[in-house]
Amino acid sequence: MAKEQDRTTHYKEGSLTLAGTVMLGTGVMIGAGIFALTGQMAQMTGVLFPLAFLAAAVIVAFSAYSYIKISNAYPSAGGIGMYLHKAYGDRLPTAFNALLMYFSMVIAQSFLARTFGAYTMQLFGGDESGRMVPILGVSLILAAFLINLMSNRLIESVASFIGVLKIGGILIFGLVGAWIADSISVDFSDAREAGAVGNFLGATALGILAFKGFTTITNSGSEVKDPHRNVGRAIVISIAACVVLYTLVGFAVASNLSLTEIIETQDYSLAAAARPALGDYGVWFTVALAMMATAGGILASIFAVSRMLAMLTEMKLVPHRHFGMPGSIQKHTLVYTVVLGLILTAFFDLSRIAALGIVFYLIMDIAIHWGVIRYLREDIHARAWVPATAIFLDLLALGGFVWVKLNSDPLVIGIAVATMMVIAIAEQIFLKNSAGARQSGEQESHEHHH
To answer: Structure pTM?
Structure first.
């Protein structure tokens, strides 16, 4: 029974070296982001999209400060849910923002699944019917679910192995793509909408999705050797490594495809960029890379996300129903996570999934920085100006992104707002009821003693 209940990953304190932590961080960061976001960012801001990746890195660098400071003060605090709890206690902001993080992680899974489908179909000349991409995505999530039911060690070893292959493969793609590009200059004359500041900020917000995996490192806290120094270092090195990789890839894509081609092939632009440069072999190599990256990302993500929901359940911040299922809470949260991911993958396209993810993530990120300024600053020895700058930059990116989407796809912003209202109202009712139940329980036991 104890074995059934315990699905946490057994790491020893101090078992992760700095290099190992960096691999963990970059492995999570280089997920579907680079494969699917490149085209979407180009659609928003024209040929300036490689610069939008750099702008996203600057925002993430300011953001990372709060996470580094909290994880230095409380290593292995159990992730975002615990960070919010340290700042806001058993109140609505904790539950609301933790659920936003949860949903943004589930959305990231669907994003990975759809990207897997879009790239896999390039081996068969594309998806004319539009049905195969969601079918392949749904199949991948189900396969990852079955592996997640088996053992932690398997998940860990598969994810690490794929991480090494993926980073090496993307490096080769970027270097070879830039090496044999027709011209080593990117044509900026086609920057038709690049002038619009809102579009550039919107693309920058999308770019943040390609970096947000750094938060995984903070969850490794006490497993890292000398965590007070190395967690921060690992985050900085991971972000820097991703900047180099993403710039290389952006450059390789921009110099092998025209802007129109990048936008036309936005769901699989890396495979499209490999074709003129390397022919069919290049396409196969890129598709294999994308399939590995997305499959590995989903495997690790489903485990992490279901752990987070289980933790929120244990902290009595979210309601929990068994629906007649056997096994531990973490098994149940695994099922909820997978079902949600399947629905998103089946019914939403890539750009809508990304839009929901970025809105939820940025709002949660702002709440973390505000919590540091308002409640934790003295405990964790943080300087207020850094999280304040992070909030300002987050709001800029979010504002630009929402503005672009209101003009191009207002429905997705409507869905995001409606979802957040439902979460806030449901959580408020749940927290009120559980506080009431707790009080009446305390009263009963008090009367019983008398």
So the answer is: 0.86
- Nearest Cα to Cα of residue 381 among 62, 68, 58: 68
Return the domain boundaries, the chain. 2-7+15-434
Q: What is the pLDDT of residues 91-148, one digit of tens each?
A: 899 999 999 988 988 888 898 899 899 899 988 887 777 789 999 999 999 998 888 7
Distance CA 432, CA 424 (A): 12
For residues 209 and 30, what is the distance between their CA atoms, to the nearest angstrom? 10
Closest by CA to 289, choosing from 162, 201, 424, is 162
Q: For residues 148 and 336, give the distance between their C-alpha atoms in angstroms, rounded to a whole number.
A: 13
pLDDT in tens, 320-336: 776 666 667 777 888 88
The single-letter code of the amino acid at 425 is I
How far apart CA 223 and CA 151 sit, in angstroms, is 20
Q: Six-digit token pair at 146? A: 């079955």
Q: What is the 3-state secondary structure (H, E, C) of the chain?
A: CHHHHCCCCCCCCCCECHHHHHHHHHHHHCCHHHHHHHHHHHHHHHHHHHHHHHHHHHHHHHHHHHHHHHHHHCCCCCCHHHHHHHHHCCCHHHHHHHHHHHHHHHHHHHHHHHHHHHHHHHHHCCCCCCCHHHHHHHHHHHHHHHHHHHCHHHHHHHHHHHHHHHHHHHHHHHHHHHHCCCCCCCCHHHCCCCCCHHHHHHHHHHHHHCCHHHHHHHCCHHHECCHHHHHHHHHHHHHHHHHHHHHHHHHHHHHHCCHHHHHHCHHHHHHHHHHHHHHHHHHHHHHHHHHHHHHHHHHHHHHHHHHHHHHHHHCCCCCCCCCCCCCCHHHHHHHHHHHHHHHHHHHCCHHHHHHHHHHHHHHHHHHHHHHHHHHHCCCCCCCCHHHHHHHHHHHHHHHHHHHHHHHHCHHHHHHHHHHHHHHHHHHHHHHHHHHHHHHHHHHHHHHHHC
What band does 8 get if pLDDT is binned at 50, 70 and 90? Answer: very low
Cα–Cα distance, 74 to 18 (Å, whole number):
18
CA–CA gap between residue 347 and residue 286 (Å, rounded): 26
End-to-end distance of the chain based on CA atoms, in angstroms? 38
* CATH topology for the 2-7+15-434 domain: Amino acid/polyamine transporter I (1.20.1740)
| Radius of gyration of the chain, Cα coordinates, nearest whole angstrom | 22
Backbone angles phi, psi at 16, to 5 degrees: -100, 120
Distance CA 175, CA 274 (A): 12
